[in-house]
Design brief:
This protein has 343 residues and is an alpha/beta fold. The chain folds into 2 domains: 3-159 and 326-342, Rossmann fold (3-Layer(aba) Sandwich), CATH 3.40.50.720; 162-322, Dihydrodipicolinate Reductase, domain 2. Helix content is 41%, strand content 23%. It is built from 12 helices and 12 strands. It has helices spanning 14-34, 59-69, 84-90, 110-119, 129-145, 162-170, 184-194, 199-208, 217-220, 223-237, 256-264, 326-342, and strands at residues 3-10, 36-45, 49-52, 95-98, 123-126, 150-151, 175-181, 247-248, 267-277, 282-292, 304-311, 315-322. The chain has a 6-stranded mixed sheet with strand order 3-2-1-4-5-6, with helices on both faces. It has a 6-stranded mixed sheet with strand order 8-10-9-7-11-12. Helix 3 (84-90) runs parallel beside helix 4 (110-119). The radius of gyration is 20 Å and the shape is globular. The structure holds L-homoserine (HSE). Residues 183-185, 211-213, 219, 224, 323-324 line the site of L-homoserine.
Length: 343
């Protein structure tokens, strides 16, 4: 028997549209292969408006409307008076998919969306780093108290299953260190600088390609990677860190001649996020590092991300894959929904 899963989307930017595209193309396959029919019933976007159809919206038609007009205005399913909170409270969605912009200072408005959804006994799947970096324990308690689950795979390395691999498979092997390339924008800039492009031109390209945050300061100063290090500390090492406990340096001070000097020495600059267990606790940092070319993270180029786990029983394990982008981040949502319903 096929079970229907009704989705309420908050945010219909790059990630929301990526998710809609995946569902337009593959929802029938997932229903056949997994017995789960994923339907978008509601979307609420602060700029594009809200739409709702309790029996399901046509994902392809939503995408066409956005590409034609940039908003949902005039669709028969439009709910002009709804915002995200109204959508959570009044729609029949089983899962709220939180894809609004990340704010690593306050976590808002996403934390409010999480709390509303969880307290209305709706599962939450999110690609938004703010709530996970700032309020995970509290949200987890709220989820447990209401008998629902949270899925946050897309907050680190988009759909590349870094969190699931770490939490489910590698944690019992005792992870004592994690290091990785957790920001696509800065890795893209460093790669392009090595080919001679200027910092400014490379950043502009990363923005055009949709990798950079709305304010790219978050990328180039290392805040985005630091947020991911905080999430990894919480989920893989059961340690609650504040963002300001991550020793953080971005890439803005690196010049083209620094990049060229590393290259002629057989090394490469990478912005490395790392977590290491020590006798006294956990060292957490985001720093540009010069890696020898033979290091597993040195060959990871462009917007690609990677995570390198050091474990007691399995030794070193490296996972390389997309860390941003419309379809890879939209796909993270699919992974989480399938995991929630598998349980
Ligand atoms: N701005 C982020 C990056 C997006 O460049 O990696 C994914 O979190």
């Amino acid at each position: 028997m096929v079970k229907q899963v009704r989705l309420g989307l908050i945010g219909f930017g790059n990630v929301g549209q990526g998710l809609a595209q995946i569902l337009a193309e593959s929802a029938a396959d997932y229903a056949a292969a997994r017995g789960l029919e994923l339907r978008i019933v509601a979307v609420s976007d602060a700029l594009k408006g809200s739409v709702y159809a309790p029996e399901g919206l046509d994902a392809a038609r939503l995408l066409e409307k956005i590409s034609a007009d940039g908003n949902f205005h005039g669709l028969p399913e439009e709910k002009p008076a709804w915002d995200a909170v109204a959508m959570i409270r009044e729609s029949n969605a089983d899962v709220i998919v939180e894809m609004s912009y990340t704010d690593l200072k306050t976590g808002q408005p996403a934390i409010t969306h999480f709390k509303e959804a969880l307290s209305h006994r709706k599962h939450v799947v999110s690609t938004n780093k703010g709530p996970v970096a700032l309020a995970y324990s509290e949200l987890q308690q709220l989820a447990a108290a209401n008998g629902v689950q949270m899925g946050v795979e897309g907050t680190v390395m988009s759909g590349t299953p870094a969190l699931r691999l770490g939490m489910e498979i590698l944690a019992p092997a005792h992870i004592h260190r994690v290091m990785g390339i957790f920001n696509g924008t800065t890795n893209y800039i460093l790669t392009q600088m090595e080919s001679g492009m200027s910092y400014a031109a490379a950043l502009a390209e990363a923005q055009k390609l949709g990798y950079a945050e709305a304010d790219p300061t978050g990328d180039v100063e290392g805040f985005d990677a630091a947020g991911k290090v905080v999430i990894l500390a919480r989920l893989l090492m059961n340690t609650a860190l504040r963002l300001d406990e991550v020793d953080r340096t971005g890439i803005t001070a690196l010049t083209q001649s620094d990049v060229a000097a590393a290259r002629s020495a057989g090394e490469r600059w990478k912005l490395i996020g790392s977590l290491e267990k020590t006798e006294t606790g956990l060292n957490a940092s985001v720093q540009p590092q010069r890696l020898p070319l033979a290091h597993p993270l040195a060959g990871v180029s462009g917007a690609t991300n990677a995570i390198h786990f050091s474990t007691d029983y399995l030794g070193e394990v490296t996972l390389i894959g997309p860390g941003a982008g419309r379809l890879p981040t939209g796909y993270a949502v699919i992974e989480d929904i399938l995991a929630i319903y598998r349980e």
